[in-house]
Every structure is written in structure tokens, then in C-alpha cells.
Design a protein that fits this description.
Blueprint lengths: L7 E3 L5 E3 L4 E10 L2 E9 L9 E2 L2 E3 L6 H13 L6 E10 L4 E9 L14 E8 L10 H18 L1
Parallel strand pairs: 3-8
Antiparallel strand pairs: 1-2, 3-4, 3-6, 4-5, 4-9, 7-8
């Protein structure tokens, strides 16, 4: 049975969002050959904003901390485990009555996209250079959050 928090809600700004208790996602980043890279999944066409690139994430369960929800979703969607990751800063996109928390993380071990297990919510996963994100269609929520996320990624790189 699905938790009551799996469902649509409308925020104070009039936007429709998935996750009645809010949502969270994991932004995994590393230093690659050409600079900072982020691990994004290509969302299945049937999903909300399907066909875009975004973070693994989804609805929080009742009383669940955002970092726990982000870890749970990364596990469900990509097969990542808590011990695979080192959690970092959080960024909250608060819409009034609904919020999405992006949890930054670094790999605790070598993580290659080809080794990850997809659960059907996405059609692919890839490490994308931060400098090339303008060349792919990003999930609108992620695209709108980039200005807030850039300083966190830069400070995590140092």
C-alpha cells in the first residue's frame, strides 16, 4: 500500500507538486576529467516532466528527514546505498506549504553510471559535466534551482 504522502498537492504559489509532505532528491557530484560533474537520471516519458534530466528523488514519507528521503529515493531509483555516499549541504526550494530539498553528496567509492540499477522511473543515468548542463533538457525544478546550487557545488569542490 502506498503511503498517504504519495500524491499531488498544490503549494501557496499555485503549483502542483508530487509529495504531500514535500519531496527530496540527491545531487551526487564529483570532480571529473573536465571539472565538476553531476549524476543525473533521464526521466521516463510517463513520469512528471518525463524526458528531462533530473536528480533521483521523490515524495517524502510522513516525518521523514529530507536526507533520509533522498537516500531512500536514490536507493529505489538507482540502487545506491547510504554507505556509497558522503552527504553534504542541503538546499531547500520552499514554495509555501511545499518544499523540495536537494541533498548534495559525493561518492564514497567509485560510482559509474553503467553499474547502476534503474527501476523504470528513468531511461538512463549519466555523469554530466556541470559546464554542459545547458545542452540537455533539465527537469524544470532542477533548472530553477541551479543558481542556488552553484555556490554549494563550488564550495564542495574546494
Amino acid at each position: 500500500m502506498r503511503p498517504w504522502t504519495d500524491g499531488w498537492t498544490t503549494c501557496a504559489q499555485g503549483h502542483r507538486h508530487w509529495g504531500r509532505a514535500g519531496a527530496a532528491g540527491l545531487l551526487l557530484h564529483r570532480t571529473g576529467a573536465d571539472g565538476q560533474e553531476v549524476l543525473l537520471q533521464h526521466r521516463a516519458l510517463w513520469s512528471h516532466h518525463g524526458g528531462t534530466w533530473g536528480t533521483p528523488g521523490g515524495a517524502l514519507h510522513a516525518g521523514e528527514k529530507p536526507e533520509d528521503g533522498a537516500l531512500r529515493e536514490a536507493g529505489e531509483e538507482l540502487g545506491l546505498r547510504a554507505e556509497d555516499l558522503v552527504l553534504g549541504e542541503h538546499s531547500v526550494d520552499d514554495h509555501g506549504g511545499w518544499a523540495y530539498t536537494t541533498v548534495l553528496a559525493r561518492p564514497a567509492r567509485s560510482i559509474e553510471a553503467a553499474d547502476l540499477r534503474l527501476d523504470g522511473e528513468s531511461t538512463g543515468v549519466a555523469w554530466l559535466p556541470v559546464t554542459g548542463l545547458g545542452h540537455v533538457e533539465l527537469h524544470p525544478g532542477l533548472a530553477a534551482s541551479l543558481a542556488r546550487l552553484w555556490p554549494l557545488l563550488r564550495s564542495a569542490e574546494e
